[in-house]
Amino acid sequence: MGRPLRLGIAGLGVVGGGLLTALAQAGPRLQGRFVIAGVSGRDSSLARTVDISPFPWFDDARALAARPEIDVFIELIGGAVGPAKQAVEAALRQGKAVITANKALLAEHGHALLQLCERHGGSLAFEAAVAGGVPVIGGLREGLAGARIDRVSAILNGTSNFILSTMEAQSLDFAAALALAQAKGFAEADPIMDVSGADSRHKLAILCGLAFHCLPDPGSIRMAGIERVTPLDIASARRLGFRIKPVARLERRGARIEASVGPALLPLTHPLAHVDGALNAVLVDAAPIGRLTFSGPGAGAGPTACAVLADLINLLDGAQRPAFGVGAAQLTSVLPVASNAAGRHYLRVQVMDRPGTLAAVSHELGAMGVSIDSFHQDAFSQQRASVPIFLTTQLCQLEALDAAIAAIARLSSTLEPPLSLPIAFDSTPSPEEG
Amino acid sequence: MGRPLRLGIAGLGVVGGGLLTALAQAGPRLQGRFVIAGVSGRDSSLARTVDISPFPWFDDARALAARPEIDVFIELIGGAVGPAKQAVEAALRQGKAVITANKALLAEHGHALLQLCERHGGSLAFEAAVAGGVPVIGGLREGLAGARIDRVSAILNGTSNFILSTMEAQSLDFAAALALAQAKGFAEADPIMDVSGADSRHKLAILCGLAFHCLPDPGSIRMAGIERVTPLDIASARRLGFRIKPVARLERRGARIEASVGPALLPLTHPLAHVDGALNAVLVDAAPIGRLTFSGPGAGAGPTACAVLADLINLLDGAQRPAFGVGAAQLTSVLPVASNAAGRHYLRVQVMDRPGTLAAVSHELGAMGVSIDSFHQDAFSQQRASVPIFLTTQLCQLEALDAAIAAIARLSSTLEPPLSLPIAFDSTPSPEEG
Question: How much is the pTM?
Answer without folding.
Answer: 0.94
